[in-house]
Write a structure and sequence with these properties.
The complex is a heterodimer of chains A (134) and B (76). Helix content of chain A is 36%, strand content 31%. Chain A has 134 residues and is α+β, with helices and mostly antiparallel strands. Chain A has a single domain, classed as Alpha-Beta Plaits, CATH 3.30.70.100. Chain B is α+β, with helices and mostly antiparallel strands and 76 residues long. Classes of the chains: A alpha+beta (134), B alpha+beta (76). Chains A and B meet through helix 1, strand 2, strand 4, strand 5 and helix 4 of A and helix 1, strand 1, strand 2 and strand 3 of B.
């Protein structure tokens, strides 16, 4: 399983409009595709950003969903309404869920704390092994 | 990951970047309240086993590359 995320920085003068747009477009995408899109605001770490997220079967499956959306006139019209709400182009990421521990999630939780780190050159395999055994 | 999940009782996923920043890995902790996260952080900070494990990570990760954010869900 993979996690798709799209993060945009909000134009603060239009923050309320941006949040309304973000939740509306997420609801539309969830209704019209096989994605279950959630919207997150960074409380600490990257203030002023909004992130959309969805679990996806694979990067290829996400590509097919993106292609369907980009052929959907209603979606494109709604995206056009976002002009001026964000200060930069969105930043997309796809991550693979390698493992999980602890109690299973019953749906999306209210808060997520995300710790990221860059693996040292040449130590990626060891880092992955350390994580899987610790 | 297993050690922290057992110690704190929180749900944690380990992820690796596929598209985005190359060579980045991440731990995603999911909770329903901020209080749960505060309790988990306090438990970790007071646990010698966790601190010892944390000390081993210097070999595998780029110094100064770690970054932690907290996000709140807006939908639903």
């Amino acid at each position: 399983m993979y996690l798709f995320t799209r993060t945009s920085t909000v134009e603060m003068a239009r923050a309320l409009e941006a949040v309304e747009f973000a939740t509306d477009i997420a609801a539309y995408v969830t209704k019209s595709t096989d994605l279950e899109l959630h919207v997150w605001t960074a409380a600490y770490g990257n203030p002023g950003t909004l992130t959309w997220s969805s679990l996806v079967e694979s990067p290829a499956a996400m590509m097919k969903t993106s292609e369907r959306l980009l052929a959907d006139p209603e979606y494109l019209s709604r995206i056009g309404e976002a002009a001026g709400l964000f200060t930069s182009a969105p930043d997309d990421n796809i991550t693979q869920i390698v493992g999980a521990a602890g109690p299973p999630n019953a749906g999306a939780s209210n808060f997520v704390a995300v710790l990221t780190a860059g693996c040292a050159v040449g130590r990626f395999a060891e880092a992955m092994a350390w994580v899987s055994t610790s | 990951m297993n050690y922290v999940a057992e110690l704190t009782g929180t749900s944690i996923a380990f992820v690796r970047s596929v598209y985005g920043e190359v060579g980045t890995v991440g731990w995603v902790t999911s909770v329903d309240t901020m209080e749960e996260l505060d309790v988990a952080d306090a438990a970790l900070a007071a646990d010698p086993g966790y601190l010892e494990r944390l000390g081993q990570t210097g070999e595998f990760f780029i110094a100064g590359s770690s970054h932690r954010i907290l996000s709140r869900r807006l939908d639903g």
